[in-house]
Amino acid sequence: MRFLNSLLCAASLPSLLFAFPNLPFKTSKRWIVDSTGANFTYIGVNWPGAADVMIPEGLQYSSIESIVSKIKSLKMNVVRLTFAIEMIDDIKDNGGDVTMEKAFQKALGTSQGNTVYQQVLKNNPQFNATTTRIQVFDAVAAELAKQEIYVHLDNHMSKGAWCCGTGDGNAWFGDTYFNADKWKRGLQYMADHGKKWSSLISIGLRNEFRKPDKAGSSLAYNWQTWYTQVTAAADIVNAANPDILIFLSGLDYDTTMSPIPGAGDLGGGKKFQLSNFKYANKLVMELHNYQNSATSCDSMKSGLWNNGFKALDASAVNQMPVTLTEFGFSQADSSYNGVYASCLRKIIPEWKAGWTVWVLAGSYYIRSGKSDYEEVWGLLNHQWTGWRSNSAINGLKAMVDASLK
Ligand SMILES: *[C@@H]1O[C@H](CO)[C@@H](O)[C@H](O)[C@H]1NC(C)=O
Ligand SMILES: *[C@@H]1O[C@H](CO)[C@@H](O)[C@H](O)[C@H]1NC(C)=O
């Protein structure tokens, strides 16, 4: 019986019924559906690639294949892969993308950069001295597709660095490094480039808008500016790649999209109305939540609902899917059992909303000037060889199972 089942599964059923990747995806009211009309819920993890080196993290400790296998073992179906606009600026303005060798040298210094680069090659022998950063993204996307995991691209930063602060120059349109035109060009480039990736389903326009410390050079920090910039970028992305879903993120570190579900006044006579978009069935809302010291799940729940999840409800003017693309907590203590983690583990699957947890890492190439930075929020240990905490991972597996139901 078992033999027969596995024979059937291996041979005929997958190709007929579950022909990954079933692209393109679209939305249908509050659901995301694949090309066969089946519901799809994002269940995944963030894989950072937008820090100083601008290469997906972990490759000095592991092969891409092995990292992807770990994601697969959790039964996750998507990776939120982050990138920096600076990579595309280099491609467009500075004579092409830089090699991974140069990228490591630039971010870590020549000597340490060389050491780390050699470790990357040792673990990932398909790369060589001509391999560029974007070719590493290509390789990550190819392996994810091979293991039947979808890619959601996320523009995390303009300048490649750890994110996010109000003083990091990447907070808002016109901030020190946040050139709105280059941002749109970068999104256009990645949306187009991603057509080569067989499992790209979506792109997030920008991670965590926030009010910049530096006043003056920035555009006004408000919903009106948000609307103008975000809809212009969405138009560009949709023209570059009409197949992919476009994730819209909100203000205050993407903790609020409160005026969007009800099509509230955004200022200057602007209102967000799905019916105004030719590609309304490609738009998804994303929110982040880091209320790590919460003491009441009820209050978290009503906060998340009012800040945007109520777009899931049939009563919303703009009924649409909402995905929690970031939440996370230390894997080095019992946070997985606290109010915050337990609450999200319960309510997000109950709402049948998608999610991607922060973060697939054990350590970073470099963060905030410190190389080989230990990431205690990372699901993996420092050397990316195994889980940081089996208890925390079991909690995450419970959330996966609840969402798959
Ligand atoms: C998607 O899931 C919801 C809730 O379970 C259900 O009502 C809806 O019919 C599903 N859609 C499809 C196409 O299966
Ligand atoms: C070097 O790496 C690139 C990108 O990873 C690949 O396309 C190319 O075939 C490789 N060249 C050699 C000689 O292996």
From TrEMBL:
Superkingdom per UniProt: Eukaryota
Cross-referenced InterPro entries: GH, Glyco_hydro_5
Keyword Cell membrane appears in the UniProt entry: no
Entry GO MF terms: hydrolase activity, hydrolyzing O-glycosyl compounds
GO BP terms in the entry: polysaccharide catabolic process
Keywords for the protein's UniProt record, in alphabetical order: Glycosidase, Hydrolase, Signal
Residues spanning the signal sequence: 1-19
Ranges for domain Glycoside hydrolase family: 34-360
Homology family: Belongs to the glycosyl hydrolase 5 (cellulase A) family.
Name of the protein described by the UniProt record: Glycosyl hydrolase family 5 protein-like protein/cellulase
